[in-house]
Amino acid sequence: MSASPQALVTAARNLLLPEPGTEHALAPGPRARAAAVLLRMALDEALDAYWRRVTPSMTRVGKHRLLCLGWYAGHETARRCHTTWSALSAACHYRTCELPPAPAQIHTRLLEVADLLTALDATED
To answer: 95 is in which domain, residue-wise?
Structure first.
């Protein structure tokens, strides 16, 4: 069983913007990376839900979901999905010679994912 996209976005928001006075075991960089993972999962879940409404066979292969999205949801939504998914994927991967993503960078992606969830939900089937 998977969490809803909105629940994943909320969890990512809680990692990026903790309540004042809250202490965390993780530094801001690893929290931003964890938030990026949650946001990418939210976008994947939203894309799966979209394709289940449109044509369920598109949920089988991830690459096809993004390639064909422009024909169904519009080119702008498809471009934004691809750009956001790619940026989140890059932020998720640990590289020993690179710093973790900045929380502000991931917060920008959080806003974009929240916007895309609305766009995918509102797109006509």
So the answer is: 28-122
Convert 52-61 to b/e letters by CB count within 10 Å (16 or more is b). eebeeebbee
What's the CA gap between 33 and 92, in Å, rounded? 6
Q: Which is nearest to 6 in space by CA: 45, 64, 60, 55?
A: 45
Is residue 15 one of the residues assigned to a domain? no
Q: How is residue 83 written in tokens?
A: 């750009």
Number of domains in the chain: 1
Cα–Cα distance list, 12 to 41, 48, 60, 62, 117 (Å): 10, 19, 26, 22, 14
Angle among Cα 73, 101, 116 to the nearest 5 degrees reads 15
Residue 95 within any structural domain of the chain: yes
pLDDT in tens, 58-107: 767 767 788 888 898 999 999 999 999 999 999 988 878 888 888 999 99
Rounded distance, CA 79 to CA 57, Å?
21
Say what the pTM is.
0.88
In a domain, 21, yes or no: no
Query: Is 70 within the bounds of a domain?
Result: yes
